[in-house]
Design brief:
- The protein has 151 residues and is mainly α.
- The chain has one domain.
- The chain is 75% helix and 0% strand.
- The protein is globular, with a radius of gyration of 15 Å.
């Protein structure tokens, strides 16, 4: 795949950042800090309940990665290209937190069952996940744009 257009780079950066944020989510969930994982969000939106088995977990993990890939495209166009790449990590962190806050606000306004109210452990985990997402998104896109190796 040729990585010359910003849409592809943004999507790939979003997916890589999504994997990183899901690692935080899984660790917190299995340590019983959070009661929901990031993959539970699309599952609840689509089916009305959390993931119930490994097959649905894989499916909704993929759905969640497509969504964060789209957020990566939004970041690439609106923030990275439009505003300039100076202080890109700071902008990535802000984008991650803003996305987290916007998604939380929309679920609260819509009163989505099983997503409101959330436990403090889930909220803090998701906030940390949003910071991880923003950092990894910004750093990955920067490296894809500058040609530096993504490790």
């Amino acid at each position: 795949m040729i990585l010359q257009d910003i849409t592809t780079k943004g999507f790939i950066a979003g997916v890589i950042a999504g994997v990183a944020m899901n690692i935080v989510s899984f660790i917190s969930y299995y340590l019983n800090i959070a009661n929901l994982r990031f993959l539970d969000w699309p599952s609840i939106f689509i089916t009305g309940h959390s993931v119930t088995n490994a097959l649905t977990a894989m499916f909704f993990f993929l759905v969640q990665l497509i969504f964060v890939g789209f957020l990566g495209i939004v970041y690439a166009y609106l923030i990275y290209k439009l505003v300039t790449s100076t202080n890109y990590v700071f902008k990535g962190l802000l984008f991650g937190v803003l996305s987290w806050f916007a998604i939380y606000s929309l679920t609260y306004i819509a009163n989505v069952p099983k997503l409101t109210p959330l436990t403090m452990g889930t909220a803090v985990t998701d906030f940390i996940g949003a910071l991880v997402f923003g950092f990894v998104l910004a750093e990955t896109l920067y490296r894809l744009e500058t040609g530096k190796e993504v490790t």
